[in-house]
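Shall we go through a protein fold together, starting from nothing but its sequence? Please make up or recall a protein chain and show it to me in full. Go ahead whenever you are ready, and we will take it from there.
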Amino acid sequence: MSSQGIRTHNCGELRAEHVGKTVRLSGWVASPRDLGALVFLDLRDRYGITQVSFDESVPEELRKAAGMLKPESVIQVEGVVRARPDGQANADRSTGAIELLASSLELLGPCATPPFPIDADKVSDELRLTYRYLDLRRERPLAAMKLRHKLLLALRQGLDARDFLEIETPILTKATPEGARDYLVPSRVHPGKFFALPQSPQIFKQILMVSGMDKYFQIVKCFRDEDLRADRQPEFTQLDLELSFADEQVVQDLVSEVIADAVGAVRPEQKPQLPMPRMTWAESMQRFGNDKPDTRFAVELSDVTELVRESGFGVFANAVKAGGRVRVLAAPGGAAFSRKEITGLEAIAKDYGAKGLAWTKLAEGGGVESGIGKFLSDAEVAGLIEATGAKPGDAFFFGADSFKVSAAALSAVRLEIARKLDLIDHAALNFLWITDFPMFDVDEESGALAPAHHPFCRPKEAYEGELEKDPGAVIARSYDLVLNGCELGSGSVRIHDTPTQQKVFEALGLSAEEIRLRFGFVLDCFKYGAPPHAGFAVGLDRLVMLLAGEDSIREVIAFPKTAQAADLMTGAPTSVDVEQIHEAGVQLLPPSNKSDAPKDGERVGGAEHEEMKS
């Protein structure tokens, strides 16, 4: 290797204007082709691919060495750039007008036979994650990493331009067990005591506002020990921010602008229009059955409780008498669904707590047929058509149960219908702010309260007096940002005074001793000139996932875990030496009975919010 370095250009850089120049390239061998008197290979790095040729003008020994190269070996080649012969240019490749006629070859890193072809269309997830360093050489994961980098860079630049300070907060912090399961770290210096890895920097960023930092942000790693799925990982990354002297409108406008600019930087054709639409939690639950609606298709839920209060169909009448709700959605063209397809929709409704899924089809003549059609009066059918805007050939699907169950079941059915009927505009990016969440979730059986977001959200002024009288009715100054039916993140105007914070803790059933033990340092902080403040946190893995068109955040994280929270590449988690365990002051016990363990979701808010406790 000369003093000029291992390469003069990267593998995506050479163009027609370089013809005649002597250059040096380094990269991975892809698609070697030995034709005897002529050897071709594609040389690849993360910038692109350049075709390298070894023809009869080069020594036979050099051609033979090139022909013996294994795919994915790392080599250095030097030679002269030349134009490809007429008719042989590759218009699909940025370097397709040229090739490198090699005059020297050096093997820098030999490669064993890869466990899968790098250019294979389908490779099992287990194999990809076991050999993630090979998987990342593939075009699709590489594109996701590039997208992620550009998006995060644009977010940083946007916040820096608005006078935000990026400030790091602790990774080893205090366990405050009102949230999801913490990852605990034993302290060797303080035997029997533990740090917790942060589920979010919530408390610290509020303390930074008391410290006078005014505008804080951080692209931060957070941790939650919970059951995993496509949009969850045990460690994830969020954009965390907080502002002093700001209300919800200021935060929402700021976040909208920063995200719109960042999306525009990586997907100019998809840059969101401002202002982003807003919808209250109550309206979202009424129209879509959940608080993270996918608005890329027009099918909505309609409440027909009053219409069917005296219905001859007993399921409806009984649900209303029991204080429940009856809702309906009309599937456009749903009359074409087979009985098997409808049974599949019914199974989805049951997965969300429904006892079943009533249905009927709207015939060409305007009446209903099949399903429960024979139980519905003409007046009820007319009312259903008016409520939903249904047309002949559509199908009605009903949820008759408590508010919570009927909403959840029909919401899930709505999404499945949209997938079946191809109603979703996959090119759209529909951002939506959901506002005015309930302050607390109320357990339907016990009546116990849990924070809908976290216990630091400020109640709306009109409801502050209800904290002691009827806390279940309190509306919080909290808000979520939703994209295509996926919750990107959440935020709120914070409580910044000790008396209000004390009342919220008491409404949650915490004793004075518990409040002092868990949150005493926060309450003490608020005594020393705490400004009004508000903030937000965006789940960056989810945002990148949606922009990349992926179905799982694993695809946009360099080294993700499996659904069993395992790292197949390193083998983590692993056993450790007994000496290490003893040094940490830890004694291992048999696993606890699962029925005694915290249930997944037993955390602040009981919902999948990015912004959680510290």
Notes: The radius of gyration is 30 Å.
